[in-house]
Predict the structure.
Amino acid sequence: MTTEPRSVNVRLTVNGTPREAAVPVYRTLVDLLRYDLGLTGTKEACGVGVCGACTVVVNGNLTASCITLAFKADGATVETVEGMARDGELHPLQASFIEHGGFQCGACTPGQLVAAKALLDSNPEPTEDEVRRWMSGNLCRCTGYAQILDAIVKATAAREA
Amino acid sequence: MTSPTVIHSVGLPAPRADAIGKVTGGATYTADLRLPGTVWGKVLRSPYPHARIAGIDTSAARQVPGVHAVLTGDDLPPNTRFGRRIVDVPVLAQGIVRFIGEPVAAVAADDEDIAQRALDLIEVEYEELPAIFDALEAIEPGATLLHPDVMNYTGLPAPLERPSNVVTRTVWGTGDVDQGFRQAEWTFDYTFTIPTVHQAYIEPHSCLVRIDEAGRVQVWASNKAPYNLRQQVAACIGLPLERIRINPVTIGGDFGGKGSPMFIPLAYFLAKATARTVRIVLAYAEELTSANPRHPCVAQVRVGANRDGTIVAYQARLVFNSGAYAGFKPAGFLPGAQHGGGAYHVPHCKVEALGVYTNRVPCGHMRGPGEPQSIFAFESAVDRVARDLGLPPLEVRRKNLLRDGETNSLGHRYQDIRAEDTLNAALEAAGWDAPKGKNVGRGVAICERAPGGGETHANVTLHADGSVVLHTSIFEQGSGSYTTLQQVAAEELGLPHDAVRVEVWDTDAVPFDTGVGGSRVTRVATQAGAGAAQQARDLLLQRAAQTLGWPREQLTLAGTRIRRNDTGETHSWADVIAKTGSPVVGGASIKDMGPAPVTGFTAQVAEVEVDPETGAVKLRRIASAHDVGRVVNPMGIRGQIYGGIAQGVGYGMMEELRMDDGRVTTASFADYKIPTMADMPEVRIVLLESESGVGPYHVKGIGENPNAPTAAAIANAVEDAVGVRIDDLPITAEKVYRALRAKRQ
């Protein structure tokens, strides 16, 4: 017999805004964001926490939201791609991805951007090698990474200028 | 007559037309769509590679609260199948399953988790049948026939003489190979094996199907050939074309894999059964186990050569394991298989490709259907022949390379052959003659492909507020078609490219569009976009002449103004439109189906360093030279090349959809490894521009070529480095280690 799953109330701050949803205990964070809160910028691809498409920042830490249960984010601060542009102004990384061709189909792009922002927030002047290692958790099948790497490195340079 | 002489857009790097949505999370992919009352569809799949279905009990699944429908093959009309050409893929298995992962039943429920719980309650009784996984076994006389009814299938590219697991046999070539082998001083035989790999786009297959109030079937889907899709779905579900509309949506990568109906007909039957909008999104494990990966291939090659390195004859028998069904190929077979020696003059050549049914996941198209397999075989064979003759591989390559006026290995004669220039450019970029360290090697491979033909439509509308909208029938999948269209329209109007906004028609708008693929878009879309803009410009100038009382022949368009050349006066074109009330609309319909008169060459040099103790291959650099005609968007074309090379590197060194008795054992991105940023070497790109392309901007294709020769260049480099050859992709440390050990003994 199937039993009705227990529901939990999750309160969290997403991109600076307090949000709340009653969800089943097994709800993943990516599904909470996408389906309960309507923030579909974050993508789900592999579903097992290895491709990086669902990357968000939870309490300052890069997190695979597809293998994080939503209730674990109760009380947390969550940052997603939707929070990167401020007051209609693109984040320098977003502008740099556009200018340097850092995406094609765009399916991995929200995760790439969130991961790259976390890198620059913790290490404002990464070497190219540090970028390569940090970003190796975010798969992209379109670009071959060269223009993503270029976009991140040049966003760093633009910040310094 | 009034062509602007100043280039504003074509040839300059253009950021993508869809950029803002894609960097802010605002772009809408199929799985992001939210329609009220949507239910989730989920599929129960066969755990057996070949079995008869003795019975299915869905009664418990139907009792689960929140379940709206449960379907099995018995609920569908007999022989409910789809196919891009050969119609052989059951929407749900009817009586027989032929691969692990084949859809057997489906549930529509309020959410995904309820659907999954219902699936778990479906009881299927199977009677196992003997299964065949190896294509070479499947072609043996007396092998179990996997499709006894194959003779009756619609869409076979050629009729079969008798029922066989060999569903397609295609032969290309030139001359007479038997005569060629008699003439040749030496004959060499080689066998190459190439594994199944997956397109590995980041967005899994997804669709939404709704039957609207008017009874029309509304489809949103990750599919790049919507007009073909409409035909295929109509044929499958038994509705006329006009009852189905495919709606545009952002597509998250394709690489050839997103051109089939996949589970869209199933979603239709669920929508019909539930009277609700049905959404199906594959879990990535389902992608890797059921969604038309690239064909594995056994290539049996014979080369006839003289001791000076002249290749007299080439014969290849390419056995492609199609898996359980053949319906995922738009031609029924893999046309790219012919291209193996396309960059060479080979007087006697015969390439035979077999498409073979087995009990494995059915295969489809990926980035040059048949090309990476065929080119790996040919370009590996060239190096093997050279080494067997004691000649430098580069010398043998040069000796046989295609030159102006010659026919290639397929008997095609193209204009402006640039094979040698392309090869030289790659060698120079690679530093071919620079000293190499110990255990460092360089290998080269070259290939060609002509841009495909197709049909497409575009409108350019000039509005009274000065805005310009381009409508297209193309559903792009990431490769940059919308940006190309923006650029050519802007070029003709004398505007910067981002002054043109791109909007995409649904399939009600035009009769047909061939869809994205085969490098046809740049060829036909540049003609359509430019043609529509030229017509809009001409209509605007006519209208301006009437409205302003200026002589038509003196008028030119200069950005946002109309200029009267005899007086130097200018007037805003937006104002002309405002004064006359209705927007100006120019249109172009392009049907350019024939073979292109030119082909495009790609030459790559891989440089590797091999650890002789462990066999580990470090890829140090790829130099890649491309014969591209004129470049429309330097940033876009480089993106295509970098991305193609990364797929070639994966194909060459990492990727294999492994199977154990038909069960995919690399069923997640944790096991199916594609290159990461840290895996990619330095890539040096050379673009060889010329006026020898097609259409108003002299373009060639770029989509397929960059991924096709990479694996062979790496194999050739490994042999150059440490003297062992890997003929079995991917080239892993284990294989190199074993080969080194065998060589030492």
Confidence is low (pLDDT under 50) at residues 1-5 of chain B. Chain B touches chain A through 63 residues (CB under 8 Å).
